[in-house]
Each structure stands twice: as structure tokens, then as C-alpha cells.
Amino acid sequence: MTEHEVRLTRLDPRHDGVRIAQLSDIHVGNLTPRSHVRAAVDAANAAGADVIVLTGDYVCWRRSEVALAAEQLGGLRAPRVLAVLGNHDYFVWGAGVRTALERNGYEVLRNQTTIANVRGAPLAMVGIDDPITRHDDLDAAFAGAPAGVTRVVLCHAPDRAPAVAQRGADLVLSGHTHGGQIYVKGITDRLMKRVGLNYRRGMYDVGGAAPETRAKLYVTPGIGFSGVTRRLGEGTHAEVAVLTLRAA
After folding, report:
1. Could you list the residue range(s) of the whole structural domain that residue 239 is in?
2. Is the per-residue pLDDT at 221 higher than 90?
3. Residue 212: what pLDDT?
């Protein structure tokens, strides 16, 4: 479990200290042991988060993994547990993955905003459907986001964040990259940028020149394994990220 403070200029003072736990890229199945997934669930529950968010890629390649996701990801405890889908979820069976998450009482946001009443103040949670498989619709996603309310955006693919920031996001939470998974300095970053991946892991400032079009982006390396059962190199270690909101 990693802890991060995020300072936001447009944060409602009542949200100073709000904690958000983020899980991403779980990839249940043959490559990610059940014990590994359950350890992540336990860590998220131990964080004492006001909101738990899931940012996509719960399965790998097989439909049989959808039932595993429903079972292994159960038991997350927070006043609100919110999710968006990732590219692997659509590669496998988007509707099935969504149902598996909803079966556990989690809310799956598909290009929509929900208002979370956190510590007596509204917090706009904007869920953007997977951009990689072209299910994203920013107009629809932000249509229900009130002006003057802090906006936290869930979007699986971090390279959509600059456009999201232009819509008035304050914080964007993404995954997808696994931190490179196998990171070799001077090589992995170059290979990632060659395929259009510009944000490997960690915190970034994104958006336009005007303050109202700027946002913080956090990219988590995620939890599970894809392709190989190893994570090697700086910034690749599996994590549950806990972000504490602070007024700038």
C-alpha cells in the first residue's frame, strides 16, 4: 500500500483529508494468484478510505475469468466503491465484467458522473469508459458534473488525461501501464512512447496553460500480471494506492 498526498487548488475545504484507495489492473486468472488479489482487497479495506475506486482490467483474455473476478474482488468496504472498465474487460466480455462487479455492490460508471456525499460535501466522481476500445465519451461523462464541485475522474488509460483536464477535472486516476512491468532504464520509456504511452507511473501535471484546464494525474502500476508473472525494475511493484486530498 502506497500513500500519496494530492494538493488541489479547487478542493472544497471540507474534503481536505479525504482518502481514496485505488486498485487497478487486477488481471485475475492463471498469472495472478488469488492470494495476491485478496491481499490487495485487504489492503484497500485497511486504508480507511472514504471512497474505493477500481480503474479497469479485471480480467486477461478468457471468459472464464469473469466469474473469478466476481469472486476474488468481493468484499471491498467503503461508503462508495466505484469502477470503470479497461481494454481487457472489453476484449473478454464487457457486459459480463460489469455484471460481475455490480454483483458485489460496486457501481460501474460508463461515461457518467455520480455525486458522492463525502464528509458533508458533494464530490463529483466522473467515470470515463475505456478509451482504448473507443468506448469513451467525454461529453456524456461530464454532463452531470456540477460547476464548482471538485471533480475526481476515473479513466483506465492515462493518455486520455490531457483532454480530460481540459474539461475541468481536478484529479485523474488511471492505470493500464503496469509501470512498464519490466522496466529497463533508457529502454522501457522509449518503447512505451513509441506505442503512444507517455505516462508510465506516478504523479503528473497535465492539461492546458490556463489554471482551470490543469489537473493532477496519478498512474498506478496496478496489482496483477499481464504476459509474464514478474514485475521488475523501478516503479513496477504492485500496489494499492491511497491518495489523500489536500487543499493547495
Report:
1. 2-247
2. yes
3. 87
